[in-house]
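Teaching assistant here, posting this on the class forum so everyone can see the example we discussed in section. The complex has two components, and the goal was to see what a joint structure prediction looks like when all of them are supplied at once.
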Amino acid sequence: MKLHEHQSKKIFKSYGINVPESILIDDISELSNALNILGEQVVLKCQVHAGGRGKAGGVKIVRSKEEASAYVESMLGTNLVTHQTANEGVPVRSILVEQLTSVKTELYLAITMDRNEQCPTILASKAGGMEIEEVAETSPQDIIYQLVDPVVGLRPFQMRELNKKIDVPNKSIPQFNHLLSSISALFYDLDCSLIEINPLVITQDDNIVALDGKITLEDDALFKHPDAYALRDRDQEDALEAEATDLEIAYVNLTGDVGCLVNGAGLAMATLDVTTQAGSSPANFLDVGGGGADVEKVSKAVSIILSDTKVKKVLVNIFGGILRCDIAANGIIMAYERSKSNLPLVVRMLGTNVTEGKEILKNSRLNVTFAETLLEAAEAINKI
Amino acid sequence: MGILLDKNSKIIVQGITGKEGSFHATAGIEYGTNVVGGVTPGKGGQKFNNTIPIFDTVEEAKSQTGANVSLIFVPPAFATDAICEAANAEIPLIICITEGIPVNDMVSTIRYVQSKPVRLIGPNCPGAINPNDNCKVGIMPGSIHKPGNVGVVSRSGTLTYEAVYQLTSIGIGQSSCVGIGGDPIIGTNYIDILNMFENDPETDVIVFIGEIGGTMEQEAAEYIKENISKPVCSLIVGATAPTGKRMGHAGAIITGKSATAESKITALRNAGCHIIPTPSDIGSTVEKVLLEKF
């Protein structure tokens, strides 16, 4: 789950990390008050869950009330399209009005899970402001890594190494080390999957300030953090994906017209691959899961597919393990009845209770074509 | 023989009285697996299905049954405790099925496990099966398997079943099948399993199924190049996945060039693997390799 910049910065502040003074507005009427407090020369930052915000015009430095108000008027209530968003973009519902910071140096700092080391790792770079993926490709030696061990934590010697390799000025070292300790603690405390500060700046008077802030919380750990979960902004998520998240269904909205219902993430990816190779284009990735999937859950998963207006046909690939085929069949029928849908189906079922599952579908009003293998299923859906 | 499991495997099930634990313990017994006990704190002294003793702790279960494998079906909030308990009791093989364990909880758990003389498979995995010895420790449907000489390793559950189904339906049996799990932090990686298959006299051909995300497949490819003499047929799924979207498995997300299917397939081809062109060609690719070899 992603947090907004203003939410991330509030958390940073509570950990004693310097952030610029700012005021969040969600209506133009709040702008003049914000400018009275912060001054007229400010930076206006659209609050959206998407990278590439700056390049897409989502951040603007303004010098006067008029300029500020023109920008806020032009952005609030619109959708911002960046290279990371879908074509329709993400809605701008609030703008962070922030004091300007006198920047001497821009750095990059993040902490995320290193899968190979099975441990969180700090990434730091002198190439602040740039996209880290780009730095990793063009000059990987410029990224400095330090693991944050779960037992001993980030040690002072690791901080000394970081200080040296990214040239932190002596006067700024205490603040920088405090920041390193803080984000390491925060990463574990809130079960983050990413904390990214880009840019992290050293100001003209040698203070360390988080100019931007991005926190992503791990979905699987949200049950431990109800307060953090309350920060979720559903408006920033794809509507169908948000619905699926609520149902604990793994779902990704894609661009084609074949709705896909599969159990298991690996098989779901394989189904998309074969469907594409057979000449069709999947409308979604959907893993309905195994344990805990009852008729109601399958039905809701199918309802998500049927409510997707781009879906013209549905491909079902169920390998019954703990999810029994009869349960899947009844769930599919329930969803079709509820939405009164007539979309054609290609069904491939195997495993537990497959005979019952197929029988239930045969005896329904649904327009079902059965297939034995993955390839036959993909070819059948392509013919419809 | 086979890997991980054999005729001498004695299994306890942690969480045997829960919905999934009881379902799969029963399915395992029906397949022929030697389930010797269960562990559910507070239910010690009771019997599962009127025959299998239930214990309060893993320590007790181990000392009274001689168990050497533990299969874990415990909800995410308590699963790392269950893993640590099994590790502390020094159960040599721990297989954790639980899906949805917070990754940060696994960071310290994995270190604890590594400090003990045990092997962890998973979490978020389908488990392992040895069809030659009728031993099934996991959630895979037993009926699709057939005794034979092909070893299968994958991160995923149902995709492993798909591979097995394709093999069995053209008459090719399996020596052992292992799903290592779809989470970012897991106890056993591809390389560990590939090494076991290389040393297993009952395995002649290896099916290695990877996915997008991370670089584990590239590391496996390097290992195969240097250390595996048996033929490896490999498939990477997720070629059509968009970047930046998590495809169900926490690990399956394209975050950079090395995480793409293309980069992984190239690495495997360079390592001398037989590339399975699409997920529907698993059986036919293995058949071709077997015909060439024998």
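For the discussion questions: Chain A has a mean pLDDT of 94. The longest strand of chain A covers residues 103-114. Think about how each of these relates to the inputs above.
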